[in-house]
Amino acid sequence: MSSKAGPSAPRGKKQRDPHTQQRIKSNALKRKGQDEELDKLRRDIAEFNPSTPITTFTELPLSSRTLRGLRSSHFTTPTPIQATSIPISLQGQDVLGSARTGSGKTLAFLIPLLERLYLERWGPMDGLGAVVLSPTRELAIQTFNALRSIGGHHTFSAGLVIGGKSLKDEQDRLQRMNILIATPGRLLQHFDSTVGLDTSGVKVLVLDEADRLLDLGFLPTLRAIIQHITPGGGGPTSKSSAQVDQATSITTTTTTPSGRQTLLFSATQSPNLVQLAKLSLNSPVTIDVDQHLQDGTSSVDSNATPGQSSTSTSTLMPAGLEQFYAVVDLDRKLDALWGFVKSHLKMKGVVFVSSCKQVRFIFETFRRLHPGLPLMHLHGKQKQPTRLDIFQRFSQSTVALLVCTDIASRGLDFPLVDWVIQLDCPEDVDMYIHRVGRTARYQSGGKGLTILCPSEEEGMKKRWEEKGLEVKRIRIKESKMGQLQQQMQNFAFRDPEIKYMGQRAFVSYMKSVHLQKDKSIFDLTQLPIEAFAASLGLPGAPQIKFIGQAHQKKNAARGKLQQEDQKDKAQGVKVNVAGEKETETASAKVGAQVELADSESDESEVGSGDEDEEVDSEEELEAGKVDGDSESDADDDDADAKDDVLTSKKDKQAVRTKYDRMFERKNQGVLAPHFSALVTHDGVVQDGDEDDGFLTLKERDHTLEAVGLGGEGEVEGETGDATSKLTSEEMLSKRKLKQGESRKAMLKLKSSGHKVIFDDAGGAHEMYEMEDLDDFAKQGDAEAQRQEYLAVNREAMKEADVVDRQVAREKRQEKKRKRKDREREERLAELQGSDEDDDEEGGGGGFRVTLGRPSDGSGSDSGSDTDSGDDDNDRNQSNSTRPTKRARFDGGSKEGKSGDVEDEETLALRLLQGSA
Ligand SMILES: Nc1ncnc2c1ncn2[C@@H]1O[C@H](COP(=O)(O)OP(=O)(O)OP(=O)(O)O)[C@@H](O)[C@H]1O
């Protein structure tokens, strides 16, 4: 073996080209500069006196990157909640913050989140460092946009995890995220199923709209998430300690960098927050800005018991908000709304109702009435792309009317809303505050109008007074009211879908009232039920029964949370059905009698009649972690067969109109295909419509026994037995019956299952009448006649068959063509997307990697948001207004002219990339 002779060649320093040298040098300088900045920042934070009055963000100990982000988003002056809470959060304290709606709570937690990761020198390889949990997808998206807006000069990667898209797509990129904005169900799903996702390093956990998270039954999910984030299970790990000088409200802290910090924010605080605070917060500092402003007491209290602070009774309303209410009979509410809309055609308004079925009904009927301003609707049973599309279109509109459920009541920041109309009474004052808070946001003005039924007025007024809210009563002149009943009847008469929607809207409204816990406001027995049904165009009030089973399922989580609260109240809630039955007239309260055998469990669901949709049900289901929130499709589905029953009520005594007869006809096949498809042979209609909640429709078929009435928890309609055996004849008026012999003959024959044909004179004959035997014999041999008959008909059938096949083929081809078109469009969109997302790997999803370079403001293009699976109502939405391109990034501009979310996420790639 030989070795190389001579000394080995000297290993001198590798010569680098001047450009590389320059880069290394400048990087070193940058690092040095950053080190110095970080040291200075740490010092400034430690020395900062949280009670120092702040007028600009620059007075806060913030990094230059964050300050640049704020500046480019035009945020210069911190709002009170920001000025008060940010210094404390920066010092590593857990915070329980509350401030009025629209007061800037989002930045109050995003700024400290960015700062904390920056101080920790968090880098792309460090994994997950911060998690923000939002109760709804829309809010998560909005928060993501805000993060993108102010975090554009940082180098963190951020992602949106909100479900509604492929889990796999999200999983592929999840592990590279530093910050996640998520809805709880989907996040937990990832925690459970995404291999390699390390959650132990999470430094900041934010619970936004915390009380809403609880309302929606997310407590078990949150508990599980916190357990995942905290190695060794549950409980906060922060070692920071706070000393608050009560005299000066100065909080000094010592923070252990490795500790997890939790920030919990809400516009209102409920006692339920105690549970969540105990679960997640460690020696929190309670910050109640409104209390502070109101009475000048310390706004910062590290000793306050979360959820029991004075905030719960002192939440103030935005300064620019004017609040009104009007008392309108239930059956005139739509008239009132219509009149209001017609006299405010230049407004941007949000209308809140209590269930998605009502949203659909109002949207569909008002759309047909052409209100004169763009109409939109938003509820939780729409598919995700639809929700986003509507959310963005409404944000960008200056004149529009959005009809929605409480899904839009919290956190959503629609710019420049003039009016918030609460068409259905909110479940409580907190909900009222959240709803009305969609207007008059951050120093802008706005008005709120709440429509109350006469029976709701006293109770609601009392609740407002208890919270110190000043809501002025106004009267709506009769001349300003619409007169819609006739038109509604027409719609229902012509379009069975509308009638069906009306029935469902009716029942879901009744159910929502029934489920409300505050019975001093919500009293089902006081409602003019028949008149209400008529106002929806229905011929009579559908009959309802509520059984607790569905509610129990729905409320598994929420029930636990609220049970204590409910028990006391359950007694006062019960409605005595039997009593009513005796005293009410035929049409008064039938169909809404409520048996509250399971009232306690029902009660625990109060306020949720609406919220079937509220939650990320999809993700919850996927995750198999359905919580109480999910009055979602899940419970809708499973509840259908056994639960509430709706039947067309008939009053035999009353004079019937042509509408009545139309609705009561046997051939319910004229109803929507989905309706008829569900009619089973025994006359029970099972509503398997995924988005129809808790209803089972029982077709009131005149030849069929009324099925399923009675039994535990059912509501027994007054007319249940009386109408159980109606014949066709009984359903027609005498006048009609006398119209002619042939008609009568037809009816007789029809009812006996025969087909009739009419001769030239109008006489009715059986379709297959027996020929006279002699005449038949004269025509020849019977067998020969039979063969001849068969041959002729065989030929006819062959011809018919050719035509049928042709038609079927054309239909198939048409279908195929449409599918191909659709696929082509999708491919095109994907291609555009991948062209544009050149920094990104993989395809779409509600989730993007947002590593990026500092923005030079040049922005990027975007593909349009695909809307592949919109719900039925999407047909009605014009796509023409969708933003497809976006050349400019407008950050947190008040106009909110953002492109679609995917655009924005793509844009974020560039904005957040690289160091500043
Ligand atoms: N410092 C600021 N300067 C100017 N505008 C701000 C500032 N902070 C927040 N805003 C704007 O105020 C509006 C409301 O902010 P945000 O949505 O954070 O309010 P919120 O308190 O979270 O409301 P809600 O309780 O309804 O969720 C947003 O449009 C936001 O851009």
Automatic annotation (TrEMBL):
One GO CC annotation, please?
A: nucleolus
Where does this protein reside within or beyond the cell?
A: Nucleus, Nucleolus
Could you tell me the superkingdom of the organism this chain comes from? Answer: Eukaryota
Q: Which Gene3D superfamilies match?
A: P-loop containing nucleotide triphosphate hydrolases
Q: Which UniProt keywords apply?
A: ATP-binding, Helicase, Hydrolase, Nucleotide-binding, Ribosome biogenesis, RNA-binding, rRNA processing
Instruction: List the InterPro entries.
Output: DEAD/DEAH_box_helicase_dom (IPR011545), Helicase_ATP-bd (IPR014001), Helicase_C-like (IPR001650), P-loop_NTPase (IPR027417), RNA-helicase_DEAD-box_CS (IPR000629), RNA_helicase_DEAD_Q_motif (IPR014014), SPB4-like_CTE (IPR025313)
Q: Where is the DEAD-box RNA helicase Q domain?
A: 55-83
Q: Bias regions of kind Acidic residues — which residues?
A: 597-621, 629-641, 833-842
State the name under which the record lists this protein: ATP-dependent RNA helicase
Domain comment as written in the entry: The Q motif is unique to and characteristic of the DEAD box family of RNA helicases and controls ATP binding and hydrolysis.
Organism taxonomic ancestry = Eukaryota, Fungi, Dikarya, Basidiomycota, Agaricomycotina
Q: What is its main location?
A: nucleus
What's its catalytic activity?
A: ATP + H2O = ADP + phosphate + H(+)
Compositionally biased residues, Low complexity: 855-866
Give the matching PROSITE patterns: DEAD_ATP_HELICASE (PS00039), HELICASE_ATP_BIND_1 (PS51192), HELICASE_CTER (PS51194), Q_MOTIF (PS51195)
Q: Name one GO biological process term.
A: rRNA processing
- Which enzyme class, named as a word? hydrolase
Basic and acidic residues composition-biased segments:
561-571, 642-656, 795-813, 887-900
Domain Helicase C-terminal: start-end pairs: 320-492
Q: Which family does it belong to?
A: Belongs to the DEAD box helicase family.
